């Protein structure tokens, strides 16, 4: 059974006058139909750029996909024309952005935008579309939806605007909903509610790829987790397995100091990351010479039934995984 989405060796370069670096550096993962996959990692780890690369919404330039394959529903979509990508985005892969402004057009009423999304998806416009738009607004928790449907985005508060953006994303009944955690626009409680809303409102065959900082959200929603660090994936697996036996030293650090994520957020304050070998080695308590240079460490499978794998030299066939795993349970 082939996955709905598979990403294989994705590299996305950011190129500005001042700097040039791979924001995403060889990322591979997949999402099955109906599956919820959460991507966790600090700011600048490449989560957003990964998701934006899928449907070509990374700003081009400065961002450029230089390598890798993206396959959606059996079809390569990397290198697809802007026209093809636009039709995929309107219909099969919907995005909910960190900043709802990105999804909302200031000159149209929210009702027009929801109906437009339904129409792209091939549903007919007209009175029934309006009725459906109102019911969608109600579902996402907009009070007085039958009045507010004729208002413009600026007439809504930040949290309500994010709800409207979710309604637009759902209007097309996408196969894959890609949501970048609304960290900036709304407070934490609202955020958690919005994410629950996504789960409630999508049916079982809608897959969700969610970027979040909130490990509680991950625990309650995700089927699988992808942990990113420095533009690479360091660990991936089913949520229960990764939470019960986090293997990569970065994943362990993340779970140990749960607030860690927000405290650690300022990448620039901690200087440049290595651009080869294991990107985490400057901060890793188990680093050794083998962690330097060359490609990112291979992925080793810890549990092949569960499809849990980790990129760390200590999990190689002649490594000593216990050294890393024991330490994590000692605390
Ligand atoms: Fe630490 Fe080396 Fe493993 Fe990276 S590969 S996590 S530096 S031990
Ligand atoms: Mg981001």
From TrEMBL:
<dbReference type="InterPro" id="IPR003439">
    <property type="entry name" value="ABC_transporter-like_ATP-bd"/>
</dbReference>
<dbReference type="Pfam" id="PF08352">
    <property type="entry name" value="oligo_HPY"/>
</dbReference>
<keyword id="KW-0406">Ion transport</keyword>
<keyword id="KW-0067">ATP-binding</keyword>
<protein>
    <recommendedName>
        <fullName>Nickel import system ATP-binding protein NikD</fullName>
        <ecNumber>7.2.2.11</ecNumber>
    </recommendedName>
</protein>
<dbReference type="InterPro" id="IPR003593">
    <property type="entry name" value="AAA+_ATPase"/>
</dbReference>
<dbReference type="GO" id="GO:0005886">
    <property type="term" value="C:plasma membrane"/>
</dbReference>
<dbReference type="InterPro" id="IPR027417">
    <property type="entry name" value="P-loop_NTPase"/>
</dbReference>
<dbReference type="InterPro" id="IPR013563">
    <property type="entry name" value="Oligopep_ABC_C"/>
</dbReference>
<keyword id="KW-1278">Translocase</keyword>
<keyword id="KW-0472">Membrane</keyword>
<keyword id="KW-0813">Transport</keyword>
<comment type="subunit">
    <text>The complex is composed of two ATP-binding proteins (NikD and NikE), two transmembrane proteins (NikB and NikC) and a solute-binding protein (NikA).</text>
</comment>
<dbReference type="Pfam" id="PF00005">
    <property type="entry name" value="ABC_tran"/>
</dbReference>
<keyword id="KW-0547">Nucleotide-binding</keyword>
<dbReference type="GO" id="GO:0015833">
    <property type="term" value="P:peptide transport"/>
</dbReference>
<dbReference type="GO" id="GO:0005524">
    <property type="term" value="F:ATP binding"/>
</dbReference>
<dbReference type="InterPro" id="IPR017871">
    <property type="entry name" value="ABC_transporter-like_CS"/>
</dbReference>
<dbReference type="GO" id="GO:0016887">
    <property type="term" value="F:ATP hydrolysis activity"/>
</dbReference>
<dbReference type="InterPro" id="IPR050388">
    <property type="entry name" value="ABC_Ni/Peptide_Import"/>
</dbReference>
<dbReference type="GO" id="GO:0015413">
    <property type="term" value="F:ABC-type nickel transporter activity"/>
</dbReference>
<feature type="domain" description="ABC transporter">
    <location>
        <begin position="5"/>
        <end position="255"/>
    </location>
</feature>
<keyword id="KW-1003">Cell membrane</keyword>
<feature type="region of interest" description="Disordered">
    <location>
        <begin position="317"/>
        <end position="331"/>
    </location>
</feature>
């Amino acid at each position: 059974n082939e996955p709905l989405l598979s990403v294989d060796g994705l590299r996305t370069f950011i190129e500005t006058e001042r700097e040039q670096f791979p924001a995403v550096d060889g990322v591979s993962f997949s999402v099955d139909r109906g599956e919820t996959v959460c991507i966790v990692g600090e700011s600048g780890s490449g989560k957003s750029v990964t998701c934006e690369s899928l449907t070509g919404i990374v700003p081009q330039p400065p961002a450029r996909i230089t390598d890798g394959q993206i396959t959606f529903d059996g079809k390569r979509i990397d290198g697809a024309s802007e026209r093809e990508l636009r039709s995929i985005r309107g219909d099969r892969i919907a995005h909910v952005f960190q900043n709802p402004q990105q999804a909302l057009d200031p000159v149209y009423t929210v009702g027009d935008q929801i109906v437009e999304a339904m129409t792209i998806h091939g549903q007919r416009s007209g009175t029934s579309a309006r009725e459906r738009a109102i019911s969608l607004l109600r579902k996402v928790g907009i009070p007085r939806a039958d009045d507010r449907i004729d208002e413009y985005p600026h007439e809504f508060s930040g949290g309500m605007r994010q709800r409207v953006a979710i309604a637009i994303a759902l209007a097309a009944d996408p196969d894959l909903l890609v949501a970048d955690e609304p960290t900036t626009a709304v407070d934490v409680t609202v955020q958690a509610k919005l994410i629950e809303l996504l789960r409630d409102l999508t049916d079982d065959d809608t897959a969700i790829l969610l970027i979040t900082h909130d490990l509680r959200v991950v625990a309650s929603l995700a089927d699988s987790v992808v942990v990113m660090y420095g533009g690479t994936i360091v660990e991936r697996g089913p949520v229960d397995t990764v939470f019960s036996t986090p293997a990569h030293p970065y994943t362990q650090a993340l779970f140990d100091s749960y607030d860690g994520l927000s405290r650690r957020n300022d990448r620039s304050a901690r200087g440049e990351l290595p651009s080869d070998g294991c990107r985490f080695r400057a901060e890793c308590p188990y680093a050794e010479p083998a962690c330097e240079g060359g490609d990112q460490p291979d992925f080793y499978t810890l549990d092949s039934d569960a499809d849990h794998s980790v990129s760390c030299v200590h999990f190689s066939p002649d490594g000593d995984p216990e050294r890393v795993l024991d330490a994590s349970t000692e605390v």
